[in-house]
Amino acid sequence: MRHKALVIFAMTLVLATAAWASSETLLYSFNTSGDGYYPYSALVADAKGNLYGTTQSGGTSGYGTVFELQLSGGAYTEIVLYNFTGGTTDGAYPEYSALVFDKAGNLYGTTYQGGTYTYGTVFKLTLSGGKWTETLLHNFAGQAGKDGQGPQAGLSFDAAGNLYGTTEYGGHGYGTVFQLKQAKGKWTYKAIHGFPAGNGGYYPVGGITPGPNGYYYGTTYYGGTTYNAGTVYRLFLSRGVWVAQRVFLFTGGAGGTYPNSSLTIDAAGNLYGATYQGGANNLGTIYKLKAGKNNKYTQSVIYSFLGGNNDGGNPWNAGVALDAKGNLYGTTRYYGSQYNEGTVWELKLTTGKYKERVLHPFADTNSNDGYDPLAGVILFKGKLYGTTYVGGTHGAGTVFEVTP
User: Could you identify which of 102, 240, 319, 386 might form a hypothetical disulfide with 261, taking C-beta atoms 3.0 to 4.6 angstroms apart as the criterion?
Assistant: First the structure.
């Protein structure tokens, strides 16, 4: 276990497009000397405000890390909890896999490669005696065995303590949804859906979101009629068999193209997500699927990104964070200033309408700010936390905090 001293500095910017200011604080800059680097994924916080995440590369073996930013006395210290070793005995390269806690405080995630068949893994990290120990829960076998291959997204728990996730490839060749069911301390893996090419959607790069009434929701980047612009789907268990249904298909253009994130569900059962392209300016959208009668959903585009110097564009693998007032938060990978390095944004809900403002435009490489956020943000005690893929003091990515 390695600790690093942390220097915190704040960068406060007054935005020309906003009537008030927001502030960004860089909590950590990754380096390429034994540390992890290139954090692709979102963060998760524990009850004390400690932050946890993964880096896609770096660490002692070069295959990525799991890290903690430990909060004490208002300052953060980075701890590398685990270094992936790759090969056939361990996972390698966790990509957009945000970590998830169970009730006992164990961490779970996925790696895109590594494991017995080199097609990726599901892992668990258990804390005992101040040390984290890794257990591989599944080694993906690829489509030859009708198993999944290449999990990009993170995992989610249902109310019964079962884990769900997706793989980008495998199954029928176009991705899978899988379940890990726990009983008496043992995990049983099952691929519960394989995507064929075509109208049903394919290549799920976002994860699974458990919803009400036993439904599980996700997105596919491609598929859905002749537009091939992506879909929203749901799964449910009926008489012991998993059934897949298409909830919505994207038709391109103003309605959004290529949904590449997991979904967020509000208390009324409405779904929120992002598309990488499409919208009024083909720079991506934030959309809502309103739950109606007979499990029918109606889509509305909440916001189409404008790009340019005053707005972001192209949310990458970034879903949306939802607060108790119905406001939405997230990131875009590009645009936002003359430096074209991405943004943190807010969609504020007032009298049934949303108004967007850029909370932080990431600055150029000479400022030591992070840039190119690939993941979304989490909301914790009124502040937003996230990662940038690159930038920072050493150019290897950052963890940041934004106060709206």
Answer: 319
Of 300, 245, 246, residue with least CA distance to 275: 300
Compute the C-alpha angle 388/393/394, nearest 5°. 85
Count of the separate structural domains present in the chain: 1
Reported in sequence order, the residue ranges of 120-203 that DSSP labels E, i.e. its strands, are: 121-128, 131-139, 148-149, 156-157, 163-167, 169-170, 176-183, 186-194
- What strand order describes the sheet that includes 216-220? 209-210, 216-220, 231-238, 241-249
Q: Which domain holds residue 397?
A: 2-403
In sequence order, the 6+-apart residues with CB closer than 8 A to the CB of 324 are none
Give how far Cα 117 sits from Cα of 11, 111, 168, 324, Å: 45, 12, 16, 43
Reduce the DSSP state of residue 214 to 3 states and report it.
helix
For residue 260, what are its two tokens?
């590449």
Max Cα separation, the chain? 59
Dist. CA 211–CA 220, nearest whole Å = 17
